[in-house]
Amino acid sequence: DAPDAPTTQRTLVLVKPDGVRRGLSGEIVRRIEAKGYTLVAVELREADEALLAEHYAEHAGKPFLTPLVEFMRSGPVLAVVAEGHRVIEGFRSLAGATDPTVAAPGTIRGDLGRDWGLKVIQNLVHGSDSEESAAREIALWFPAL
Ligand code: RTP
Ligand code: MG
To answer: What is the ipTM of this complex?
Structure first.
């Protein structure tokens, strides 16, 4: 590579079951593409318990883990791998804060999400939070990549 070539990075995005059920998959993918990121993989999936336990391993022992896994199994999720310079941070910025009530307007969660007062926060999307998480999550969801 040339010394100043942009480094590419990949992230795992999930449109969670609430997003798919509400018909927001296209709008969420649209925002990723409109930002200029490249789609590497897109697949509608029914996640099983083993996959989700692995995906959410960092939350083992937390009180919201069981309702979170139950929620994530309540319907299909759209699994997406997106690519671009600083896409991990960039998608987290597009997604907004975890709690949709306080997520900034302009973000996916701020514009489209709200707290429904359920056992676990339903906030439309997941995005990898570091290079290590992204590598681990992409290998888990898309072992062929
Ligand atoms: P994500 O992993 O989904 O991209 O979201 P995040 O980093 O903003 O949030 P994280 O702390 O990793 O939590 C994972 C997901 O668990 C649900 N959650 N519910 N108190 C609650 O009800 C609660 N806390 C976390 C959310 O769906 C959150 O996105
Ligand atoms: Mg997280």
So the answer is: 0.94
